[in-house]
Amino acid sequence: MKIIACYSNKGGVGKTASSANLAHLMAQSGHKVLLCDLDPQGASSFYFRLKPAKKLSEDSFFTDQDKLLKAIKGSDYENLDVLPANMDFRDFDIFLSRLAKGHSALKKALKGVKKDYDIVLLDCPPTISMLSESVFSCANWVLVPVIPSTLSERTLEQLLDFFTQHKLEKSKILAFFSMVQVSKKLHLDTMQRLGEQHADLLLNTYIPFSSHIERMGVNRAPATDFAKATPAAQHYLDLWRELATRI
Amino acid sequence: MPRLWHSQGEGDFTPLLSWLENKAVQRGLVLSQTEFLSGPLALIDNGDCQIAEQGKSLLRLSHKLLSISQRDIYPLHRKDQPPFDFPLPPRELCERIEQPPAWLLGLAPLRNLQILARGKGRYQQWRLTNRLHKTCGIIYLLDIELNGISAQHFCFCQTYRGFTKSEKLLTSWQRYIKDVFPGQTAGVSEIVALYRRHPLVVHHANTSMQKGRPDIASQTKRWLKPLLLAAFSNEQGIILDIDTEYLHQYRVNMRKARSLLSLCKGAFEENQQQHCANQLANWMQNTNVLRDLDVHLQDQVTYQQILPPHLHCQADKLRHNLQKERQIAQQRLSDQLQSTAYQTNKQILMQSIAQLNDGDKGQKPATQYGRKRLIRQLNKIFVLTGQLHDQSPDDELHRLRIALKKARYLAEFFQRPKTTKRLSVLASSLKQLTQDFGLFNDACVQQQALHGWLDSARAIKRPPSENIEALTLLLRYYQEQKRQTKYKISQHLRLLNDPNHQSALLAATQNLI
């Protein structure tokens, strides 16, 4: 089982949209996928028409395997299940900081689903916290959407510094440009500059800014399903193909 | 991820949906129909029933393709708009549907898919959704009415992980169905059994050895009958010209039967045996022209690749002429196969085989006879191999090819069900060798035909230069192909010529059968 975390310290960069679309594409290509919504806002769950997992509190998530398994819901797509989030997930940090082995708690919790899935995709909340450390420790790959703008660039640098300080494997990080507007010179310049600086961790495929991705909330389905012929969905397909060669 | 259960039998499940609808409302769920299809139904498989062999059934209902098995049902989505017309090569079907399943991708490419049974059908899809319009369960209902069997009704239910309300509801509905229609039987196998009787479905000859210590005469009779029936089962496919595999299998089974008769000398009275073998040889001879034309036409793609672009039209012309010739040959063979004389001779031959009298060696144990015969055949191969050299004419290689084929048949026939690994290794290595020889033979056939065409083209008063250029290039290509295959065969033969290998092979055969 491979664990892929979709993470960025900055909000609104397309983590959830990327998680939902990639999870759908992975499942379509025959992998058994669990999309784990760790963000208390529960946007991933919303995209798949799922109610929050009321009975799964922050402590039962990490300590009660049965409850965790029962909270998993089947999506409308073959091979794709979702672990919906709920507001209790906002207390993950407090709970993990109390644990002696908080770093490895997520890895331990996900052991229970190992036999059921080929890929677990973690849709992470935008924080650098104890939960993030636990995510970095258990994930085989950390997928980072980056908007080619100053603030988003800054958060990528912060993440790299964090990995250096905590002696984490930087090779786990795979970044890609998200919400790209090729008509903006700033976007093109930033993409070129970052591409030169971080050629090793940046994927070649970028995701364009698209109204079809925004409409995921209206259709409550991945764009790769309801708008599969659109450029945005095609870019996600390219991203998955590139990712598949790396993982 | 969906979980499935199913129920099937002669009871119509549709009226029971109102029960489910009422219960769903009580649980805050909505049951609604999301798909409905009704119309003519066709059951599709190839002549070997390879889809049925995998426990699947492929249906065309109106213009939709559905896959059903004892466990699941799903539609195969088309990539393009035109409807599927059968017969259709499996590769072409795979190219025309989205994400073709593994059981379809693995079908033999030479067997076309065709309609083996027709009837009427109705397909419905119902969904159980919650307040968020999330699907919690799907119900597929399929009603099949075919000529010859009573209507079959299938119900497949798919539940989604974590939706316990819906799962419990569908489980109780399943119990309700069982109460209303107790003792439902499996339906997919009944449908498959129906089309297995279709004239385009071929028989497979069971050529395993009898248990105990059978004598060679009775054992050979037991092999001959299924081989001939398997050959005859391909006739309808040849007549309708579904695909070239029918003719190939007709010839393979005939050849095996004829080889058996010629190999098992002394098992039956010689004149009877000779008469049967001659009859088979005559029938096979009638198919030679069509077989050769099939070989040429299968190589047409290669023609396009070999020839430079300015000569592609010559390849097209050649194909056109070959197709015309093939049409004539196919018609001639079809007429022969449908003729009263052939049908009568078939019956006479089957009777003759049943009435074959034992020869002087007829009572010998089959295994002992087979062992001696295989050893003799291997010795013959060693002698023929020893006589070969680089400049040997094609005829000598052809003789060796026939000897190898006969040895392969002997090894295949006389291997016991629990045969030791070495004998099956011998049989498979002989098969590999005969396949290489087959390629050599195909190249010879091509070369011979091209020579003939070239001579005819040159005989014309004003020989067409482009045609001659194309034929010369093709001839050169096949000469080179023949040379390469000959070299490959010589590598194989080096091992066969090794005295140590020969004695090991003979010793193993001595002990193995």
Structure description:
Chain A: It holds the Pfam family AAA_31. Chain A: This is Cobyrinic acid a,c-diamide synthase. The complex is a heterodimer of chains A (247) and B (513). Chain A is of the alpha/beta class. Chain A has a single domain, classed as Rossmann fold. Chain A is 45% helix and 13% strand. In chain A, strand 6, helix 8 and strand 7 (173-177) form a beta-alpha-beta unit. Chain B has 513 residues and is an alpha+beta fold. Chain B folds into 3 domains: 2-195, Hypothetical Protein Pfu-838710-001 (Beta Barrel); 202-364, CHAD domain (Alpha solenoid), CATH 1.40.20.10; 366-513, CHAD domain, CATH 1.40.20. Helices cover 58% and strands 15% of the residues of chain B. Chain B contains 18 helices and 8 strands. Chain B has helices spanning 17-26, 50-53, 90-96, 102-105, 164-180, 188-195, 216-232, 235-240, 245-263, 270-298, 300-306, 312-338, 340-354, 366-387, 394-414, 421-459, 465-497, 499-512; strands spanning 2-9, 30-45, 56-61, 64-69, 73-76, 114-129, 135-146, 152-160. Chain B has an 8-stranded antiparallel β-sheet, with helices on both faces. The model of chain B has no long low-confidence stretch (mean pLDDT 86). The chains are: A alpha/beta (247), B alpha+beta (513). The A-B interface holds A 28, 32, 48-51, 70-76, 78-81, 220 and B 1-2, 99, 132-135, 159-163.
